[in-house]
Structure formats: structure tokens, C-alpha cells
Design brief:
binds N-acetyl-L-glutamyl 5-phosphate, AGPR, 326 residues, binds NADPH dihydro-nicotinamide-adenine-dinucleotide phosphate, alpha/beta, N-acetyl-gamma-glutamyl-phosphate reductase activity, arginine biosynthesis, N-acetyl-gamma-glutamyl-phosphate reductase, Semialdehyde_DH_NAD-bd, Rossmann fold, six-stranded parallel sheet
Length: 326
Amino acid sequence: MKRTIGIVGARGHTGAELIRLVAAHPGFELAFVSSRELAGQPVRDHVAGYDGALRYENLSHEDVAANGADAVVLALPNGKSAELVDGIDVAKPDTVVVDLSADHRFDDGWYYGLPELTRGAYAGERRISNPGCYATAMLLAVAPLKDVLAAPPACFGVSGYSGAGTTPTDRNDPEKLRDNLMPYALTDHVHEREVTRRLGVPVEFMPHVAPHFRGITMTVNLWLAQASTREAIKARYASFYAGEPLVRVVDEAPWVSAIAGRHHAEIGGFALAPGGKRVVVVATLDNLLKGAATQAMQNLNLAFGFDELTAIPEPSPGWKPGPGDS
Ligand SMILES: NC(=O)C1=CN([C@@H]2O[C@H](COP(=O)(O)OP(=O)(O)OC[C@H]3O[C@@H](n4cnc5c(N)ncnc54)[C@H](OP(=O)(O)O)[C@@H]3O)[C@@H](O)[C@H]2O)C=CC1
Ligand SMILES: CC(=O)N[C@@H](CCC(=O)OP(=O)(O)O)C(=O)O
């Protein structure tokens, strides 16, 4: 019998990616997809690659809680999950809830699901907080070196504008972004706090948004306590992520254009400054996939006992290791 999954906030960028992933899963089926704006419309008119018969519904908090889906994924803007979760806590507390927003990333009662770094701590929690997209890139880029740092890593992040969601702002306005790079929230971005908390070491994060639609480049400057070599640093990353199909250690600094639409993150560069104590690492990932929907699918698979990569079609047939890649 298939497990049923409902998606709230299903009109959005991440909701659409999740619809595709859940619909292709052999052990899951969509119970409902909720959107106020698209209520009544066939999902297949809005989500390329989905050819099922489901229609969007405008479900109240009570409807969602009463639906009885085995899992509910919240793809709502930040600050909108509380009433829904309260309703589920009362009506169907055993429901698995995966929240894509930032609302529960600082809540110790929720499991923080960045599988490559945290799956060992999963103890059957029914409340799962999905990491932020930039936070995923920073955490993956810094984690292998976090014990040998001499100073807070400085993280220069550039996101495609799908990262800013669908509510109109300067940060998702293609006209304002044309020929442009837009810096914002240069200190104290919520993902700076999220990564600092999860790593246990402070990071400094400077986000920017660029004219491309999807994909993040995270260039991280790290100071080491002891001098090292490029080979040793690269080997440390390769060993840290050995056996992780969704985190690939590559030789050169990866390009964001190569990661759009792909489920995995890439980490490379490993440029060492003279003296051997300053290293620059570059991570790329698709903010809507490894930064959101793919990670949610890994977490759903974990929660329901499926292989973590079920319905995550990697390695994709097009990918071949380049010279020097691990
Ligand atoms: N975009 C990204 O790269 C990433 C996003 N996230 C997080 O995931 C969540 C979803 O992001 P994204 O898909 O980009 O967002 P979108 O802006 O694209 O979509 C938001 C969805 O929520 C619904 N919605 C909007 N406002 C409300 C409201 N007040 N009450 C109920 N429903 C509402 C919208 O549908 P309707 O108005 O029709 O109901 C829509 O389906 C956010 O919390 C975001 O921060 C996390 C990682 C990456
Ligand atoms: C380009 C852009 O605006 N990006 C968003 C991050 C998207 C994301 O992951 O945000 P959550 O933490 O809310 O899940 C931002 O900086 O707020």
C-alpha cells in the first residue's frame, strides 16, 4: 500500500518540484496539493512532466489536518506554518510533517534533515525541518574543515532568482536583475544564523541574487589553523563525502550552469593561497532540488523506511567524472 503525501503551498517553485518527485515515487502517492490561487485547476496544466488527474484544492488548516495523509510537506512562506502544525499536532500527531520554510530550523523538537550530515541522528521524528538552500551549500562546503579552522569562514553566495519565491520583490524581478548582481542581507541573514548553529562554529554569509533562474554558487574563504596542501584538502573532502551520491567532490571550481535541474551538490576548487593556510572552496547546488525538494524527498524516504535515494534519479545518465574528479 502506498504512503500518501499532501503538499501545502503547492503552487510555488519548490511545490512544483515536489509534485514531480512524489508522483514518480513507487511507494508514495499524492493525497492533495493545496493552493489558494490555483484551486480547481488541473495540476498537469501547471507542472511539466506531471500527467496525473489531480487538481489543486484550497484546503483550510482543518481540512489539511483532517485529510489523514501519511505526510504533509509545507512549502509555504516563512511564518505561515504555525497554525497548520498546531492543527496536525491535535488531530493527527503521527503525521510526518516536513517543513521547507525556516520556521522550525531553530526548534530542537524538530529533526534537522540534511541527510549527508545529520541522518545518523534521525530517531524516527515525525517533525522534520528541511534546511535552507544557501545553508545546505554552506554546511556541505564547510563541514569537512570545521575542526581545523582558525577563523569564521566567509561565504559569498549567489542565488538564482527562483530562491526568492513567487511573491514579487526586487529579488525575483527579471527586469531589475538584468545585467545586475543584487547584494542583500549582508549580515545576519537567517541562513548565517542557521549554519552557525548547526555547525557549532560561526560563519559569515554575504548573499546575492543574479539574473539566472535556478542554482546557487557558494564561494567560501577558509583560514586553517595549520598549513596544508591542496591534495590533502581535496582528499579530506573526498573521504568525508565518500559514498554520498548527492555530494560530488570535483577538482575544479564547479559552475552553476552545470547543476541546474540536477539533484546533487558539487564541491571543488580547493585553491590554496601561498603559505598553505587560506583555502577557497566552491559549492554549487540547485536551490529548488538539493536546496529544497530533493532534500525533502531524502527526508521522506528516511522517515518511511525507503532507500534514501528512491525516486531521486541520480546519477543522471549525462554525468561523467572529469579529469581529477573523485
Ligand atoms: N525557492 C527556493 O529556492 C527555496 C525555498 N525554500 C522555502 O520553501 C518555502 C516555499 O518556497 P517557494 O516554493 O520558493 O515559495 P513560492 O513563493 O514560490 O510559493 C509559496 C506557496 O505558498 C502559498 N502561499 C503564499 N502565501 C501564503 C499564505 N499567506 N498562506 C498560505 N499559502 C500561501 C502559495 O500559493 P497560493 O498563494 O496559491 O496559496 C505558494 O504555493 C519557503 O518557506 C521558502 O523560504 C527553501 C529552500 C529553497
Ligand atoms: C534569493 C533569495 O531571496 N533567497 C532566499 C532564500 C531561500 C531559502 O532557502 O529560504 P528559506 O530559509 O526561507 O527556506 C532568501 O535569501 O531569503
